[in-house]
Amino acid sequence: MTTDAAEPRTDGVPPHAGHGPVAQTSPATPGRLRRPPNLGLDRFSGLYVWAAAIVIFAVWVPDTFLTTANARVVAGDQAITAMLAIGLVLPLAAGVFDLSCAATMGFSVTVVMWLQVHGVNALLAALITIAVGAGIGALNGFIVVELRVNSFIGTLGVSSILTGAAYWVTNGQQIVEGVSVNFLDFGGFQWWGLPLPFYLMLVLAAVVYIVIEHTTVGRYLYAVGGNPQAARLAGVRDRRLVFGALLTSATVAAFTGVVLASKLGSASYDVGLTYLLPAFSAVFLGSTQIRAGRVNVLGTLVAIYLLATGVKGLQLAGAPVFVNDLFNGLALVVAVALAGRSARRT
Amino acid sequence: MPGSALRVKGLSKTFPGQRALADVDLDIAPGEIRGLVGQNGSGKSTLIKVLAGYHAPDPGAAVEVAGMALHLGAPGAGDAAGLRFVHQDLGLVPSLDTVDNLALGRGYETGPTGLVRWRRERVAARSALERLGYDFSVRRPVGELSVSERTAVAVARALSRHATPPRVLVLDEPTANLPDTEVDRLFSLVRSVRDSGVAVLFVSHHLDEVFVLCDTVSVLRDGRHVATVPVFGLEENALVELMIGRRLEQHDAPASVAGAAGEVVVTVSELTGAVLAGVSFEVRAGEVVGIAGITGSGREEITSAIFGGVPRGGTVSVAGTALPPSRPDLSMAAGIGLVPAERHANAAFLEHSLRENVSIADHGPFRRHGLLSRGRERSDVAAWLERLDVRPPGTERRLDALSGGNQQKVVLARWLRRTPRVLLLDEPTQGVDVGAKEEIHTLVDRAAAGGAGVVVASSDDTELARLCGRVIVLRGGRAAEELHRPDLDADRITALTVRKASA
């Protein structure tokens, strides 16, 4: 039953199935070739699966899973990954990779801490760090737009450079002392039981959502991602746009780094890299959701919280630690493959 | 006649709503160079595609290669029978060298251990080129070779004996991208192929080349084989007459009102590009100017060069102000619009909605405080889709769900919405069915009547005759002739485009 719901069904689904959290497969009318009514079972499959996962774990491990504390933990833990992923939506919409985003975030964590250790006040340190992030974005833009290096390769190189630079700044040591108390309070602040990063993530998501869905810039990004030559011949300044997208994603990554630093209260040079794959997975998995076929903000959020719910539930049910990576990878491949299949069928 | 290298009998091909080939017979002897000529749409490319196994013909056709019946509609069958092709784009991989390109499709010679015998492959490649009269390093990437050298690689590959020796070599527009100096080299290559007993079918728009190279020439018109005649003693005018026939132009509606045109909207002077070598003209409000020319004449790049889509030299000015090159956005701001050729590459966002495809060139009307109003956008686009009778309608439908003709109308809507002062159209009815073609022509008439200066570049001379008040004929990158209504008809345009370059 539940595995059925995981598949984006487009055929033989009775019209009432969409109202329940789980798509019922009734034995009705397999022979009719009439096009089934569009229930959004493909576009919204993530939401259905998410609901199904919540129900399953609620039944399976009710004592620990179905608690407000658990909901808060899931919501808060994913805020950093979500911010990074939302920043990535912009370049990916234009068909450009920014593989350096996680390294930019990690580098920013070390920079903002190092500055404070060296006597810069917290706010100024944060602003400088974000400006440095913008500089990294400009470097990415220069490499991709002016030097015409493939974005996948160019930003991969920058990622490695930044990881090296972070090591250099920290000397390979963790920075744990000399950080302003206000800075740490900022990261530890809670409101209605949810940590501040969660709210910052919501604000960021709202801003990027509006830009990408409701402004000319968003349209142009998708146009460049869809067909750069056609976009250029329709008056879109594609090169400038790609530059701007890379600049923005790096700036967002740096901001995320500042938030992460205040949350962690420590900095080690390799803190960013573990976030790279989850962020990309979320955007790609998200591109099968809500606005199917396009990277988009809401789909990305659905993907992040769907995966987090699944992983958390399995952990509470007693699964070992490595289930995290296993589940994330599996879900990404299966979901994108299924979405590709249903797209080819139409 | 058992001696035929290639014999085609009763070949017809029907596409939905259109008969592309009707009962074509051809017979080519070994060691003969046969020209194949005809206007655009006469069925040449369909014939080649049927022979190559890309299209299956209508039932009842028979093709024999050296006396052996060919299994039709199966790619690879012709190759096995000795029927070989060199297509216009040559089909080479630029990053690979000659040895690798020759091995594509047939594989490498390997030793007992399964490793490639590179030395032997290189020697074989070099001698294959030598037989064609070429000598260059077989280890250089093909992309670095000159065009005639590349053509030689493609010919060598076509002639290499895999299972069977080659019997017939089909050359499809091999000179379209070739500079004049290299054409002679290609011709001696073709002659040496002929001398080895292979029959050659040479497809070309350039009649002068047919006269220099071919022994005989077959003419297709409207999908029918009208004549096969020896080239010796043939007059150029007689051949042109065979190509265009003696039909009446009944739908030749007077399009724009010549003479009553308004002020100059765009001035093009000394325009240069990859092929263009100094073309100057003016377009007035309300007039439709045609650009004719065979492939390689500069016709393909002229609209894009004016718009700034490809690099250009010379000046383009609108209302007295010169426009910077390579800036489509500024050209648009000055009031120019371009419906480019090859829609899928240059204009279509196939996976996006019709709404986004139409509105992309101007979001102004539905932007308030920087935000787009989707409701306003939808109603505006819906009105345009209705005005242009796009079917099926529906602003949220994906563009790739539409037929070619309707896709083209969507692209037209994108530009007509802006009410451009200058509307540039490149092959406006490429890949468009007959009904939609007429509708698009009407839309062009209306745009001109509404005061736009229109430039139409087209390889379809009937289309130019239908639309234009005057037609500029390009040859070798220059404006060679200019025809004005009423001395303007498709036959005359065709005759001028294929005339030997004398200038």
From TrEMBL, chain A:
TM region(s), chain numbering: 44-61, 73-92, 123-145, 152-169, 189-212, 241-261, 267-285, 297-315, 321-340
InterPro entries: ABC_transp_permease
Topology with respect to the bilayer: Multi-pass membrane protein
Entry's localization field: Cell membrane
Key words of the record: Cell inner membrane, Cell membrane, Membrane, Transmembrane, Transmembrane helix, Transport
Record bears the keyword Nuclease: no
Annotated region described as Disordered, given as residue ranges: 1-34
GO terms for MF: transmembrane transporter activity
One Gene Ontology cellular component: plasma membrane
Primary location class: membrane
Top-level taxonomic group: Bacteria
Stretches with biased composition (Basic and acidic residues): 1-10
PANTHER family: ABC TRANSPORTER PERMEASE PROTEIN YPHD-RELATED (PTHR32196:SF21), ABC TRANSPORTER PERMEASE PROTEIN YPHD-RELATED-RELATED (PTHR32196)
Protein name (record): ABC transporter permease
Organism field: Actinomadura rudentiformis
